Amino acid sequence: QVQLVESGGGLVQAGGSLRLSCAASGSTFSINVMGWYRQAPGKQRELVAFITAGGSTNVAGSLKGRFTISRDNAKNTVYLQMNSLKPEDTAVYYCNIKVGPTTYWGQGTQVTVSS
Predict the structure, then answer these.
(1) For residue range 12-62, what is the model confidence (pLDDT) as tens digits?
(2) Which one, of 14, 28, 16, lies nearest residue 78 by Cα?
(3) What integer best gives the mean pLDDT of the chain?
């Protein structure tokens, strides 16, 4: 089993920045892809970004240039740096990791961007 603990969400004004963290613990010896999804009210959950064990990254097209994903393998932690935030970035952000064939989700952290 793997446990995920997210942190870093909150309320920020438009144009501001936030950094989300997701720390994995438990059976983490074979973590592969780590990523972030988000879900806004009334909308489907969508991929924000992911990073492979080798460090290759993919950020959703509309977020490129503002969001950056990184990971610290020694700490089993994935980060999401969000800059130039917009009100439409308001959502619950979920950490997602793949350990072998199994996918784990974090509990979600709320990000609210005020105009």
Answers:
(1) 999 999 999 999 998 877 889 999 999 999 999 999 999 999 999 999 998
(2) 28
(3) 95
Residue 63's CB: how many other CB atoms inside 10 A?
19
CA distances to 27, 53, 88, 90 from 57, in Å: 23, 10, 23, 22
Question: Could you count the other beta carbons within 10 Å of the beta carbon of residue 42?
Answer: 5
Q: What confidence score (pLDDT) does residue 27 get?
A: 81
Contacts of 6 (CB under 8 A, 6+ apart): 20, 21, 22, 93, 94, 95, 106, 107, 108, 109
To the nearest 5 percent, what fractions of the chain are helix, strand and coil? 5, 60, 35
